[in-house]
TrEMBL record:
Pfam family, one: 3keto-disac_hyd
GO molecular-function term, one example from the UniProt record: hydrolase activity
Domain 3-keto-alpha-glucoside-1,2-lyase/3-keto-2-hydroxy-glucal hydratase: 33-253
The protein, known as: 3-keto-alpha-glucoside-1,2-lyase/3-keto-2-hydroxy-glucal hydratase domain-containing protein
InterPro entries named in the record: AL/BT2_dom (IPR010496)
Domain of life: Bacteria
Naturally occurring in which organism (per UniProt): Kriegella aquimaris
Length: 282
């Protein structure tokens, strides 16, 4: 059976019941997370900031301090749409990816209003070496991270689509952003965001152990009047700099690629991974 057909069978079997977290699992001690951030430096990461060459860490935007990846703008005169991304050096296709993040401080001078307490995880993205110097965002699926303003509802782990589109409930969705059903997280609290991505089949977002969004068939924007675009089987993963200071501590992944042609095994591994409700500690 072809790989795509196996993934469709898997997606069909991954109903809501399977993907609901349960506590008390005997598998807790065996979750094979691999740390992509070593807690010391940015080894194995590539920087791309708009209007700057690859690996020009303009204004020390991305630094490591106190065991966290810190995104800061202290050396900026004004933000001036200099959106940045920190790319892990290896692409991935099928995986469970996670970060723990918190928004801190005040937004950089000149940052757009919509970017207040706004950042993101870019998945299934383009290779940073192919980005134009003045390109703002990589073509990718963005798991949008948002913080609350202290009073209003504002979901996180939303979906935005720079250069991409997706399918939900059988419909091709071309709008830029779609909100999740997450709670609002105010202040400087740590939040855990996880993303399950199964090639070009299924993507699911979780926040502090709760499923908040799912969709299928991530793809590039359609061309020449077509409804569907080129399906994205995988790509780069990057963390965003979007004008509000943010910290990332855990940046980790479970690579599921070796199970991609073994749907029964993949199903079992996913059930094991999702049997634990992982919540960021403060």
């Amino acid at each position: 059976m072809k790989k795509d057909s196996k993934f469709r069978l898997l997606v069909a079997s991954l109903g809501l019941g399977l993907l609901i977290f349960c506590t008390g699992s005997s598998f807790k001690k065996h979750t094979p997370w691999v740390q992509l951030f070593n807690g010391k430096d940015l080894k194995n990461w590539t920087i791309k900031i708009r209007y700057h060459e690859l690996n020009d860490n303009f204004g020390d935007t991305f630094t490591v301090k106190d065991g966290n990846i810190q995104v800061r703008y202290d050396e900026y005169d004004t933000f001036d749409e200099q959106f940045g991304h920190l790319f892990y050096d290896k692409p991935f296709s099928s995986y469970l990816f996670a970060v723990e993040y918190r928004f801190v401080g005040e937004q950089a001078k000149g940052g757009p209003g919509w970017a207040y307490r706004n950042s993101g995880i870019m998945i299934h993205g383009q290779d940073p070496t192919t980005m134009a110097v003045d390109q703002d965002f990589p073509n990718s699926i963005e798991v949008q991270l948002l913080g609350g303003n202290g009073k209003d509802d504002r979901s996180t782990s939303n979906l935005c689509t720079p250069g991409t589109q997706f399918v939900k409930d059988g419909e091709v969705i071309k709008r830029h952003c779609t909100n999740s059903i997450s709670h609002t997280y105010h202040g400087d609290q740590w939040v855990r965001a996880e993303v399950l991505a199964l090639g070009d089949s299924l993507i699911v977002h979780y926040v502090n152990g709760e499923e908040v969004m799912r969709y299928e068939k991530p793809q590039l924007d359609a061309q020449n009047g077509e409804e569907m675009g080129q399906l994205l089987k995988g790509g780069s993963i990057s963390l965003q700099s979007e004008s509000h200071p943010i910290d990332f501590r855990k940046v980790e992944i479970v690579n599921l690629e070796k199970y991609a042609n073994k749907p029964k095994k993949l199903n079992k591994v996913i059930k094991r991974l999702l049997s634990e409700k992982r919540v960021a500690k403060q």
